[in-house]
Amino acid sequence: MISAYEVFSKDDILEQRDRLRGTYSSLFKQTIECAIFIEGYTKESGIKHLFKMDISAQAEIFRQAFVDLKNHLSMGYAKEAVIVTLGVQKSVDILVMRERLRDLHPPQELGPKSWCMQGTRVATINIMVSWIAQCDGRTMWCKGLAGTRKSSLMGTLHELLTTNFGGRSRLAAFVRYDRIEYSKASKLITSIAYALGVFDDRIGMAISLVVQTLPSVATLPPSAQFQLLLRNPLESVPDLGDGGPLVVIIDGLDECDASDDMLAVLAEGFGPKLPFMRLIVSSRPVHHIATVFEGQDCIYPLYLDTSSKSIDRDIQFYLERELATIHDNAFLKKCEELDAVNELTARASGIFIWVATVAKFIHAFPGISRLQALLDTKIPRDATEALTTLYCKALDTLVSEPGTNTDIKKYVRSVLGAVLVTQTPPGMTEDVLDKIVLLGKGSPPSRHIVSMLGSVLSPETEDSPIRLIHKYLDAFLQDRSRCGDEWFVDVALHHKAIAEQCRIVSKSFLKTWSPKSDMDIGAVPVYISKYTLFGMFWYSAFDKSDIELFTSFFPRYFRPWLEVVVTDGGILHFEIMDTFCRQHGLTRMPIEVDIRDSDTIHRVLQSSAAFYCHLHHSGEESPLAGKVTRVFETPSSGTGLSLRPLPPNRRHPLLVPYLLPYHL
Prior knowledge:
Strand order of the largest sheet: 2-3-4-1-5
Shape: globular
Number of strands: 11
Low-confidence stretches: 4-17, 45-53, 81-88, 570-577, 605-664
Mean pLDDT: 74
Helix content: 55-70%
Number of domains: 4
Structural class: alpha/beta
């Protein structure tokens, strides 16, 4: 008994383990019975003991019981240790698996962009849900014109699949592309693989094994990636389809740079061996996607028809809800008099973005005059005419309302142009507009212009810069035949104007730049560190005057410029160099370069010698070529690197100037 207790008392915490509680209960029960036997024995006289000849047999029974309990407990320890070890090992395996999945380098994912208003798109959503439940193995292609709210449908489907589909999430992966925030298709398949691995540990284990055995899998062609990272792992997991369909959604495929090979892989989908997998793709029916998708047996097309009666009903419902939120009795009475809901629906041409823009436009004061201005327009023939008429009327009305400055159109066009040409990250903010764009005497604060343009601009948020409300507005502002001279944005001229202003502001700042060893980039204003210091790289219409402005800046200011850039650990945008090389058929270079990557910056600055080489003829330098070469001549002290051109007899198209990195 004592021996058994010694074993049992080694670790009291084991008593808390569920699988050992039965053994502990048996020990306590056996101990109580033994105690009662001993107590009875000690109370009796010695004579009585003589007549109880079975005492030894009873004691042996107790002894054997304790031996059995001790052995049982020892075996329980071993079994429990195995169980606990296996449990810990499983957790460790999952951690290792997820760490290995990160080797796929998944980009920062974008969640749903928007959702359908409750009560709209009911018929279309029912079709999609029914297809998911009864899929025949094909890929669904949800196609429609810009403004038909494809992303809202995908957002609503995201919500339904995550929360309201059979009690568990059926959304295995969601990828949304955006022409500004995320437009690179090279990581599409690895992004789906990562999402699948996180969604289900069994899938994750299978995919991580591929990543472990074939580290270069992400560099393979799309078809090989799809087979190795998606099809094979999914097929290897037993009973995976028993839980129902698993859905992968790709929203905004037309917003990325997907190759024909990638499109062909998506068209084929997961194939007949994975009948439980569903692939849904949404996009405009742009030529390069339609060429691959249309007419394919493996594609299930879902066209968002803008002329259907159900779309008109949805638009009417949307307008009724939005107009009802305007708490102005006079306005609501006027809406009834003018039959505003039906008249606006007739002018929408089935385009939801038109309706959303109108709702924002007339929601602001003075609502009645804006409503009347829209209803004075004729009913358009198609969606393009509808949006053209809307944007022209909205912009003209905004700059002609009572109380507006006579120069307001100039400022509005400047803001629209600035937002348009800087839509690639980091985009445009009110602070940058005030510091770089709206600098003239009497210029209004940017917040006034941005607020005024609230129906066509998405305001700045913590996660996003100011953006045009839709790609249709982007195209409208760049098409003189649609917007006219008054609203036409010449992208090249706006690029040059902003680049020149950035050069001036940078020059003024760098004249007073005094770096310290403990300098924090936070001490440098954001509009300087994120915008103006890179603005001179935004030149796109490349000519001799641009080169001269570009090269006049760096001989004197290159070192302090580089010090700030290195401190910031920023990304260099060599658009001016890339544009030059593209126009003259020279070797291209990456537009974006991480300044912390000494090898890459080395290659880019070597490639920038294309300026010199293109202008260097028969061993003689033109004056302009000399300027370009001298851009990179700077003292090495304090810069962390030394830039020096090679002697003329050793110059080579890709070896001028030569960069010798030290400790970037």
